[in-house]
Amino acid sequence: MKKPKSKQLRIQSRTSEVQEIELLEKWIEFGKPESGSNPLSLPPLPAKSPVGRIDESTYSQFAGCTKFQQLPLSKNTKDGVRQAGYRNMTNIQRASLPHALCGRDILGAAKTGSGKTLAFIIPVLEKLYKARWGLEDGLGSIILSPTRELADQLFSVLKSVGKHHGFSAGLLIGGNEYDEEKDHVNRMNILICTPGRLLKHMDATPNFDCSQLQVLVLDEADRILDAGFKKEVNAIISQLPKYRQTLLFSATQTKSVKDLARLSLKDPEYIAVDEEAIAATPSRLQQKVMLVPLDQKLDMLWSFIKAHLNSRILVFLSSCKQVRFVYEAFKKLRPGIPLKCLHGRMKQIKRTFILQQFVEQRSVLFSTDVSSRGLDFNKGVDWVVQVDCPDDVAGYIHRVGRTARYDSAGRSVLFLLPSEMKMLERLQEKKIPVQFDKANTKRLQSVSGLLAALLAKYTDLQPLAQRAFKTYVKSIYKQKDKEVFDVTKLPIDDFSASLGLPMTPQLRYLDRKNVDKKMPGESNLVPEVPVKKDSVKLLRQKPTNNLFEESEEEEEEELDLLKSKETADGEEGKAIAADHLLPTTRVLKKKKLKINVHRPVGTRVVFDEEGNTLPPLATLADMIMKRYAEMREDMKTRDQEDKLLDRQRRKEKRIKEKKKQKRARDEELEDEDEDEDTRNVKKSKVYFNSDSEEEEGRSKVALKTDAISLAEQEELALKLLSCMHS
Ligand SMILES: Nc1ncnc2c1ncn2[C@@H]1O[C@H](COP(=O)(O)OP(=O)(O)OP(=O)(O)O)[C@@H](O)[C@H]1O
């Protein structure tokens, strides 16, 4: 708690504040860089050159300076920056801050991890400080972020660098309790928000007023301006005053004139500090691309994890369902390193907790693109593994940018399917120094067989696998870039088998005539990546009469593998071992199955109804075939259920949309009747550095969003299905 100041002290501090602002304004006016110039091209100022006012009419230069302390910044900001541990500026900070401090609009681009956050947080603080923005002045700045996690991170930077200022600041993100937020939001000077949540407040919070906005910031501007946020962003911009400063930052900046026109920028400074750089990605980042057939992606990922048990690994997959399945399945296989997962359908509290854990301990985080942009894991990510190809080059740059941040090193690997090789060309065209590598097949461990066993044992895993399969294929089908993503080239059946599924789920939208017509199990291997397929042999076999005939050697190998799992992994391993004889109807390609005549006969003698003895394997075969018939039936039912759910979802969406439109119409009518005066209700004071108030505004209970109700529906469907199983 701050000690209350005496009246005299308050007057004194106000006077010195006024004097400081006057000095800063004169200093900036004196040394402002030419519009369109690049401060980086100026010779760096000597470290010991004078700072601030030199005599009555002369001030020190600041364009070309290398240290924060040489910039015309308020003492509050300088103290905050110094205490947060920042001394020397990065290139994007050196190039953009002198312009931004003059109040100019900025379109800034610099590599990932190069310090763009401070390049917009500092001008926001300075602009409001120089405008003598007070708590009762209302909303002075909005900082938009595409994801909740990034918004949260920006909020932490703002709190640390701005802690000596007296502004109030709030974090508005989906998943927080809206009702709590709305009680505080009108008292905030700076808001950090995701577009959807901000729009909700603009639409629904009484007296929400942004008519005095001074600075608008779009972090990850290209993402915020792309089609995904178009509706929200257009609606937001239409409610903001045109006379304001606008700062746009991203590692992959938009150059679309249309986008910029939407923002009504005024002579923006285009600052791209790495345009001449040899690479578009950080120089300390080692990047590999590996050719991996679709049905071996999980084998490769598993082998990779097992080979890097002491690392912090961020794994990108293309959908929530992929993430859930791989996480749940690998967790049951216990690789020997903590596993975590993060996707947009998780509750916010859990998302925040998982990120925190990932930052704190070495582990593997399976994630969708929700963590591909902006996140700065402070202990550093050792590896970024892109199991599924990113949508485009920008997506690639942001994903790999989660490692090798600021001055640290990092490594990344991208798995490409043979049909996605065009992406490699795209990366090379954009000056991304990737090294094309062959897989080290000697150390490849197959998990497809183990997954089949897991799916047979854990009935709740099978629907996950099925959905992972479906969403992956659909994501490829929906991709815009058909040169890279060609659904007809996917080895659908092999992929399904690699997830451990006993049969390929139906894909209603796909014309299977055109899709790769390979027989299940037929190789999709390309010669460059010869992969050893025989590390796990038992579990994927042809549904023929020879179904259960395998060489003793093979069986022993399998049992050894399971036994070693048992000792290494405890109970989980035992469970798998007990069920290891449940095969899938899939086939190991072109495997020669031998009848082992020396094989000892089972000890149990089984009789048929007429009293004849049966070979022991016959009963086992019966049991297995029955189980697989059941599993197939289940899958069919699930297909039907999915169809119904899909229909229901679409219906719900339509109803919701209609309700929304009706509400908007009603509100418009109400608004016309409303007395204008009610809008100008006086705002009360909230102090920036009283964190508790902000914290109060944050969620304890996640909001019931569309996504959550879908998840609940899914859970319900899963429960239903597991009831059917039992
Ligand atoms: N001047 C500086 N001196 C030392 N470290 C800095 C400086 N500026 C930023 N950093 C550190 O560099 C890291 C990356 O910064 P930041 O998150 O702002 O990068 P970014 O360019 O926004 O990355 P991305 O494009 O991924 O969003 C952070 O850990 C930050 O604390």
Automatic annotation (TrEMBL):
Domain Helicase C-terminal: 293-455
SUPFAM superfamilies assigned to the protein according to its UniProt record, in alphabetical order: P-loop containing nucleoside triphosphate hydrolases (SSF52540)
EC number annotated for this UniProt entry: 3.6.4.13
Biased amino acid composition, Basic residues: 650-663
InterPro entries reported for this sequence: DEAD/DEAH_box_helicase_dom (IPR011545), Helicase_ATP-bd (IPR014001), Helicase_C-like (IPR001650), P-loop_NTPase (IPR027417), RNA-helicase_DEAD-box_CS (IPR000629), RNA_helicase_DEAD_Q_motif (IPR014014), SPB4-like_CTE (IPR025313)
Biased composition (Basic and acidic residues): 635-649
Domain named Helicase ATP-binding: residues: 97-271
Catalytic reaction annotation: ATP + H2O = ADP + phosphate + H(+)
UniProt keyword annotation of RNA-binding present: yes
Function per UniProt: RNA helicase.
PANTHER family: RNA HELICASE (PTHR24031)
Domain topic, free-text comment: The Q motif is unique to and characteristic of the DEAD box family of RNA helicases and controls ATP binding and hydrolysis.
Stated name of the protein: ATP-dependent RNA helicase
Organism: Cynara cardunculus var. scolymus
